[in-house]
Write a structure and sequence with these properties.
This protein folds into three domains: 84 residues, no CATH class; 79 residues, no CATH class; 144 residues, no CATH class. It is 49% helix and 7% strand. The chain has 13 helices and six strands.
Length: 351
Amino acid sequence: MSAPRKRGRGLRAFFVLSALLVGALAYWAYDRYTAFVDTPLSGLQAGDSVVVERGDSFAKVLQRLRDSGVTEGHDLEWQALAKQLQAAGKIQVGEYPLDPGTTPRALLLRMRDGKVLSYRFTIVEGWNVRQLRAALAKARPLRQETAELDDAALMKTLGHPGQHPEGRFLPETYAYTRNDSDLDLLKRAHAALDKALDAAWQSRAADLPLASKDEALVLASIVEKETGIASERAQIAGVFLRRIKLGMRLQTDPTVIYGMGSAYAGNLRKADLLADTPYNTYTRDGLPPTPIAMVGADALQAVTHPADGDALYFVAVGDGSGKHVFSKTLAEHQAAVREYIRRYRAQYGPK
C-alpha cells in the first residue's frame, strides 16, 4: 500500500472521529440545555425575589439572579433561552418572585411579560383617616411619600385642596408593586370612592332629605360605624333619614366618639353625650361637618336606597350578635333599652 493512500485513510478516519465527537458534544450540550430550561431552580425559598431595575442589561439581570442565589445554568444557556423565548432585550422593570419550583423558562417568560410580584393593602370599612395613615406607614415595600404631610397637605398633594380626608378613600383591597408609593395607592382609593359615591347618588331614591352627595357620604359613614351587619344597613339608614325629615337629632354615639378624638378611652359616659362638639349629634341638629370613617360601597347604597319602615329608634340586642332592635315610639325604644341592659349584665356583668 502506498503512503498517500494510507494518509488519505487516516485523514478520513480523523474527520469521521471529529464529526462523531462534535455530534456527541452537540447532543450532550442540547441534552443539558433542554434539562436546564425546565428543571426547577434549587435553593429557592418562599418569599425570595429578584428586582430588575431600569436600564439593566440581560447580563446585569443574570448577575442579579446569581446574587439572589441562583447557581444553575451557564451564562450561555441563559442567553440561549432568552433568545429562544424572545425575552432578550424585553425584560421588564419590576420585582419577580423566586418561588420554589420556578424553572428558568417560567422565570424568563414572567420577566418578558412583566408579570411582576404584587402586594396587597386593604382599607378596612369603618377605619378613620388616622388608622388608615398608620397602616399605610407600615405597608412594605410600599414607598413612603406622605409621612411628612399633614392631612391638609396630603389632600392638596392629591389634587383636592381644602377637602377633609375623612371618609374619602374607598375600603377595598388594592394591589401594588415595589415601585408604587403610598401616594399612588391613596390616589386610586380616592378615585374609587368618588366613583362609588357618584354611582350611588345618581341612582338615589326619590325624596331623600339630603342636599348633596357629600351629605350622603357623611350619613353613610355613620351607618358604617353603627352596624357590622350587612342586612341592617338599609334599616339604620332609614331610621336616620326619617329623623332628618322630622327635624329630630340623630343622637348617634359614633359621632360623639369621633368628636372626642384621643380623649375617648373606650367608655362613653353621660357627660360625654352632654359635652358639645361639632360632632355631637345629641347637642347639635343635623349631620356632623364631615364623615367620621371610611365608607364602603354597601353603606353608600344603603343611604341612597334606604329600607322602608316607620322605626325612629334602634338599640343593640345585647346578646353579642351585633344585631339591633328597631322601635317606632320612644316608649318601645325605652323598653328595648332596658332589655338590652338586662341582657348585657347577664352576659358581661354590671355595666
